[in-house]
Amino acid sequence: MITALLGLGGLLLVMIGAGIGTVGRWALAEHGPRLLARRLPDVDLAVVRPWMTWTANVVSSFLLGIVVTRLGAATGGAGYVFLLLGTGLCGGLSVLSTAAMDVVDLVRRGTASIALGYLMLSVGVSMAFLWLGLVIGS
Question: What are the backbone dihedrals phi and psi of residue 48, each rounded to the nearest 5 degrees, phi first?
């Protein structure tokens, strides 16, 4: 009975964290291009939108590095914080499927070289920021 309640509590924490992360990613994708367009009126919002996903993935990787360093394979209360922040928040903030669709959209627009650069930068910079988060967290 206790194990089931603890499992349910963990599930609830993941759901809360994922909800917060997902709303953050949505807000960045929805409002980021508009904020940028205010500063740079000549910017093409269709070109900017994939970079909002990229930003969310990089920020999520950085935060995950810090969370993993600080909490790692923690148990007890710290394990629940990891579920909230690492699995939930960072998982909701980052999204591979949207990044993949961004690549497809860029290819369909006839910008295959930009799509390839976007893909490589997404993976490379996200991993670099994960490492940076690990270094800063330790």
Answer: -75, -35
Residue carrying the six token digits 């609830």: 12
According to DSSP, residue 88 is labeled I
Give the C-alpha separation, 65 to 86, whole Å: 9
Per-residue model confidence as pLDDT tens digits over 20-74:
999 999 999 889 988 888 888 888 887 788 889 899 999 999 999 999 888 876 6
Q: What is the pTM of this model?
A: 0.82
- Interatomic CA distance for residues 3 and 39, integer angstroms: 53
Q: Which residues contact 106 (CB under 8 A, 6 or more apart)?
A: 50, 112, 114, 115, 118
Report the chain's mean pLDDT, rounded to a whole number: 88
Contacts 24+ apart (CB under 8 A), 41-45: none
Report the alpha-carbon distance of residue 88 to residue 130 in Å, rounded: 16
